[in-house]
Amino acid sequence: MRIDVITLFPDFVRQSAAVGVVGRAQQRKLLQVETWNPRDFTDDPHRTVDHRTFGGGPGMVLLIEPLRRTLQAVREVEAGPAHVVYLSPQGARLTQDRVSRLAAMPRLTLLCGRYEGVDERLLTHEVDEEISIGDYVLSGGELAAAVMIDAIGRLQDGALNDAQSAQQDSFSDGLLDCPHYSRPVQDAFGDVPAVLLSGDHAAIRRWRLKQALGRTWLRRPDLLARRSLDKESRALLDE
Ligand code: SAM
C-alpha cells in the first residue's frame, strides 16, 4: 500500500513513519509513505501557502492553489487512484472499522491542515472524506496522519510478526482485549490467573472471552450494544 501525505512538516511525518512496526512494514516493502510539501508548489519567493481568512477574525487559511497543484502532482504518480482524506476535527471519527476499510485500499492520500484549516472550496472539490482522530483540536493534521499511518500500517499483511495479534486486539471482534500477563508467575502485585498456566486451551479461550466481555461491559458498554456473540463464542460460554 502507498500513503502520500501532504504536509508543511514532512520531516515529522517521515520520522514518525520510520520507527517500529510501520518502519518495519516500509523496510519489508509492504507500505510506502511519501510526503509532499505544498510550499514546493508555489511561485512566489516567500513560498506562500496561507492567507488571512475572509470576513475578518483571527487565523490563516491554507490556500487553494498550492494544494491543488500538490494534489495534481500526487495523482500523476502512477500508483492507482488516490483516495483523498482530509484530517479534520470535523470529520467522521476514526474507528477500527474505518482503519480496516482504508487499510484495504491500494493507495491513500492524507491532507494535513494547519492554522484555521483549508479553504472550503478545495475540500469540496478535491477531498473524498474527512476523518477526525477525536473530539479535540490539534494544531495540525500531522499527528492525526501519524496515527492513521500507524493504525493502517500494522494491518498490512506481514507487518506484524504474529498475524494473529491484530485479530485479537481491542475492537477487531467488537470487544476490548482481555488482560495479559507474563513473568513472574508470582509477584508482590499479584499472581498470574491459574487458568492461563493450565494448558487447557478451551478453558483459556473461555476465560479470555469472559474477561473481554466483562471489560467491555464495564468500560465501553456502547460497544456491546452493537455486537452480537458469534456461534463459536456462544458455544464457548455454554460449555
Ligand atoms: N478551525 C478548525 C476547526 O475548528 O474545525 C481547526 C483547525 S486546527 C487548529 C488545524 C488542523 O489540525 C486542521 O486543519 C486539521 O488538519 C488538524 N486537526 C486538528 N484537530 C484534528 C483532529 N481532531 N483530527 C484530525 N485532524 C485534526
TrEMBL record:
Source organism per UniProt = Frateuria aurantia (strain ATCC 33424 / DSM 6220 / KCTC 2777 / LMG 1558 / NBRC 3245 / NCIMB 13370) (Acetobacter aurantius)
Protein name listed in UniProt: tRNA (guanine-N(1)-)-methyltransferase
Q: Which PANTHER family match?
A: TRNA (GUANINE-N(1)-)-METHYLTRANSFERASE
Q: How does it assemble?
A: Homodimer.
Residues the record lists as binding S-adenosyl-L-methionine: G113, I133, G134, D135, Y136, V137, L138
The catalysed reaction is:
guanosine(37) in tRNA + S-adenosyl-L-methionine = N(1)-methylguanosine(37) in tRNA + S-adenosyl-L-homocysteine + H(+)
> Where does this chain mainly localize?
cytoplasm
Q: Name one GO cellular component term.
A: cytosol
Q: Say which domain of life the source belongs to.
A: Bacteria
